[in-house]
Specification:
- This protein starts with 6 loop residues before the first strand and ends with a strand.
- It has 15 helices and 15 strands.
- Helices cover 36% and strands 15% of the residues.
- By secondary structure, the chain is of the alpha+beta class.
- It has two domains: 199 residues, Periplasmic binding protein-like II (D-Maltodextrin-Binding Protein, domain 2, 3-Layer(aba) Sandwich); 206 residues, Periplasmic binding protein-like II (D-Maltodextrin-Binding Protein, domain 2).
- Pfam families: SBP_bac_1.
- Keywords: Cell membrane, Lipoprotein, Membrane, Palmitate, Signal.
- This is Extracellular solute-binding protein.
- InterPro entries: Bact_solute-bd_prot1, SBP.
């Protein structure tokens, strides 16, 4: 099989083409091999799980106490791009590795390109599809396969400090145009105050904003990838933030949740952050912030796009050399859909939004004293999780795509490059990344 025809892969609800698989050194195409049977006999089945979630073993212990035949051991690894993914790839190449690995949604296509993941549809994963949120499931279903089980997601909302908005004479925005007007009002209060930050060194928020607008950067046409990052929706968002940055309505010195951001938020110089559901735990680290923050629905692009967007989220994926894929699937389904599993994941691991279709977790069904007594999870994030762009999908070059965008965005500050031009330049580099992997690719326009 040639690299040129390696991957004709449709993602999510827009599935088209066929994954042909390319083995990492030392492995075979796991999804063309015979199915691994369920473990026979009465002995204990040992499952290993590599992840960067804190205290994951305590979640496993809840399962282990009631399932003596299938015992799960969690091993901590560094965050994905901080070394965790390389550790997994190295283990796969050596013919080893865990049964289960934590893999972000946006990283799944790259693992698939390396033939690193088991197609769980072969082991009955589609039978549990109805247990999961539609948007979460759309990110793990590729063509007719299922290459991970959603572990947590990140629907977005607008977190804000009530007193600062009141001082500026503004309210939580319902549209991005209202958001820009509010940013201007906050700046007008003086003292160097900003409504929000715009991080040029992190392309994740920008990708979320264009995803909400209705953009679709990557799709397939037969065995060819189509890259479409200069579409009208993306250019609209880039032009919007060009104007916001040029008018000095946002702080571009640091991203959200950095030390500088925490200091500014604590002193009232940063009024808000448009962020994912998991941002609540990070915002609660703002010194003296208890009772001063609330959450509103994410502002929209008016008559176009979707009600919300998403940042982050990961899966529990069964890796190619797993010895017990059936038992691994049984465990991770319990972990991500049962009340016991979801509650334990929230309590011990602080996961993002639960991927379960009908259970957000007991801890998230009550008002929050920290967020001014607001029951924000049910009021904001339950509907937010249902207002996603289901056509959005990632590609096998996601990490290099983010690097290209970030490098070009920095030129906005250093040389005045327009974000619209930065996106176009990044697209050229991203197309080359596809070619470097031996994949057929073209731009949409």
């Amino acid at each position: 099989m040639t690299r040129r025809n390696l991957l004709g892969l449709g993602l999510g609800t827009a599935a088209a083409g066929l994954l042909a698989g390319c083995a990492v050194p030392g492995s075979t195409n796991v999804n063309k091999a015979p199915l691994v049977p369920a473990a026979a006999g009465s002995g204990t089945v040992q499952i290993t799980y590599w992840a960067w979630l804190k205290d994951l073993q305590k979640v496993c212990d809840v399962w282990n106490a009631k399932n003596p035949r299938v015992q799960v051991t969690a091993n901590w690894i560094p965050g994905g791009n901080a070394g965790g993914y390389q550790k997994m790839y190295s283990a796969l190449a050596a013919g080893g590795g865990p049964d289960i690995g934590q893999v972000e949604f946006r990283q799944i296509p790259e693992f698939m390109l390396a033939n690193g993941l088991v197609d769980l549809a072969r082991y009955g994963a589609k039978d549990v599809q109805s247990k999961y949120d539609e948007a979460a499931w759309s990110q793990v279903q590729f063509v007719d396969g299922v290459y991970g089980i959603p572990q947590d997601t990140g629907p977005m909302g607008f977190y804000y400090q009530t007193a600062i908005l009141e001082q500026a004479g503004g309210e939580p925005p319902t549209t991005w145009d209202e958001w820009r007007d509010l940013a201007d009002k906050v700046r007008s209060t003086g003292n160097g105050n900003y409504l929000e930050v715009f991080p040029v060194a992190d392309a994740s928020p920008f990708a979320a904003y264009v995803q909400q607008a209705g953009a679709r950067w990557f799709r397939t046409d037969g065995d060819e990838w189509v890259v479409d990052m200069t579409d009208d929706k993306t250019m609209m968002v880039a032009e919007f933030f060009d104007g916001v940055i040029d008018a000095k309505l946002v702080d571009t010195s640091a991203g959200a949740y950095t030390p500088g951001w925490y200091a500014a938020a604590a002193s009232g110089k940063i009024a808000a952050v448009t962020s994912a559901s998991w941002g609540d735990a990070l915002i609660q680290s703002v010194q003296g912030g208890e009772g001063k923050w609330k959450v509103a629905p994410m502002q929209t692009w008016g008559d176009t796009g979707y009600g919300s967007s998403s940042i982050g989220g990961s899966t529990a994926a069964v890796l190619a050399n797993a010895k017990h894929p059936r038992e691994a699937l049984e465990f991770i389904t319990w972990m991500t859909t049962s009340k016991e599993g979801v509650d334990a994941m929230i309590k011990y691991c602080g996961i993002g939004w639960s991927p379960a279709a009908d259970y957000i977790g007991a801890a998230r069904q009550e008002p929050s004293a920290w967020f001014s007594g607001q029951n924000y999870n049910e009021d904001v994030f339950v509907p937010s999780a249902q207002e996603q762009n289901l056509d959005w999908s990632w590609s096998p070059v996601t990490q290099s795509a983010f690097t290209s965008l970030q490098n070009q965005f920095r030129r906005k500050l250093t040389g005045g490059l327009k974000l619209t031009d930065a996106v176009e330049l990044a697209q050229r580099e991203i197309v080359q990344s596809f070619k470097d992997k031996g994949l057929n690719v073209r731009t949409a326009r």
